[in-house]
Amino acid sequence: VAPARREIGIRSIFNLVGPLANPARAARQVVGVADGRAVRTVAEALRRLGSERAAAVRGIDGMDEVSLSGPTVVVEWTGSQIVEYEIDPAALRLTRRAVPALRGGDAEENAAIVRAILSGRAGPHRDVVALNAALALVIAGIAADLLDGMRRAALSIDSGAAAAKLDGLVRMTVS
After folding, report:
1. Beta-sheet pairing, 72-77 with 82-87
2. CA distances for 166 relative to 33, 119, 140, 170, angstroms
3. Is the pLDDT assigned to residue 1 strictly greater than 60?
4. CB 76 within 8 A of CB 66
5. pLDDT for 107-121, tens place per residue?
6. Which of 57, 119, 132, 174 has the fewest Cβ atoms surrounding its Cβ within 10 A?
7. pLDDT, tens digit, 9 for 90 and up, residues 39-61
8. Burial 10-41 (b: 16+ CB within 10 A, else e)
9. Contact between 92 and 128 (Cβ < 8 Å)
């Protein structure tokens, strides 16, 4: 549904259906939700679609990911129940950042930001990547909690493992 979403040019039901129609059929996943009224609905849909564990997230700033600008609402399917909580970056010893400090740009600029993060550059982009990765690692059952997840994400970046994985994905897609 991605082409249809782009062609329409405005938010529609496809913004909710697209992430739920992932052909990879991931058993565990984190899904960003742009519409705050739909976060619980998306989590419930993930449960009904057979997810082992999943989370729907929305920053109170409107970002459809875990944000550094303030708390993020998380509605999680734990595998046995749906629970709702907030992630506050300040509680995780992260500096809160205004949304403009977190923005990217066009494809070329975003690729440069990703490469800078994976080469070890500190800053708000790295922090938000580590925080989102941390939640994904918790949902995947790899990290015990968000602090453990952020530690693991930092280790993956600092060891070069994350960059190596990206390089492998790039090689697969261009060959």
Report:
1. antiparallel
2. 25, 12, 19, 6
3. no
4. no
5. 999 999 999 999 999
6. 174
7. 999 999 999 999 999 999 999 99
8. eeeebbbeebbeeeeeeebbbbbbeeeebbee
9. no
Tokens 């300040």, located at residue: 90
Question: Does residue 156 surpass a pLDDT of 90?
Answer: yes
Rounded to 5 degrees, φ, ψ at 85 are: -155, 175
Are 54 and 30 within 8 A, CB to CB? yes
Contact 38, 16 (CB under 8 A): yes
Please identify which residue in the block is written with the tokens 């925080």.
131
Residue 62 to residue 31: CA distance in whole angstroms: 14
**H helices of the chain, where?**
2-8, 14-20, 39-48, 99-102, 107-118, 124-139, 146-159, 161-174
Cα(98)–Cα(120) distance, integer angstroms: 22
Are the beta carbons of 92 and 79 closer than 8 angstroms? no
Neighbours of 126 (CB within 10 A): 18
Query: Sorting pLDDT into bands at 50, 70 and 90, what band is 17?
Result: confident
